[in-house]
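Bit of a strange request maybe. I'm writing a small parser for structure token strings and I need a real example to test against, not something I typed by hand. Could someone generate the tokens for this chain?
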Amino acid sequence: MRRLFAVLPLFLGMCMARAAVPMDIHAPASVQACTNARPCPVAILSPGYGLAGSDYSFVTNYLNGKGYLVVALHDSAAGVKLDRNAPVSKQIQAMARVASQSISTVIDETAVRYPQFDWRHLLLVGHSLGGDSSAQFAADNANRVSSLISLDSRRVALPRSARIHVLTIRASNTTADPGVLPNQEERSRYHTCVVRIEGSRHNDMQDAGSEQLKAKITAAIDTFLAPARDPKYACDKDSKLIR
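Reply from user aminoacidic:
Good idea to test on real output. This should exercise your parser:
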């Protein structure tokens, strides 16, 4: 994994500067093989509330190994704090809308700097709030997204589209809001992958989680993305942590 830079100041318009969007960009070891004629894939990684993109190095390392450029946001909440005495779902949905705009700005700026990567068929990866932000971005920019991986997002509806392939990995100690997860008919129609890991916890789906859990997450992602499989976007089976 090769880190190119830590924080990119972004600007909107000729005269008015927008607040910087902190991020890390991790290039694959094979970056020299990426060209405008044969661009390499791009993944946008959005962290859960209270976490940073750097807390998902196991995902970043896996994707780098598969040739992806990984753009990891530092904060999906833009510094906004949850009010635990108010309805959480509405707050998360509002944060996701703001984060969607941040993702869009980050992509537009970074794409100009790295034209040897494929910015027209993005992979979105997000945990919790980051998964909700990714789902919101997909709703706002469906023509820019090819696939989405949600690590137990719970508040924003996942895409229902034949154009956007979806994998959502579910913890066993949480429940998604009504309408977030596709029903059985929608899963069949859109080939949505829903993988449940029995014994897993929502907050553990990051670097601080067990090696066993991280291995199961990357295995599900590998099945989903493996280009040698037919169809390309395949579904792993539900699994269980061994205590």
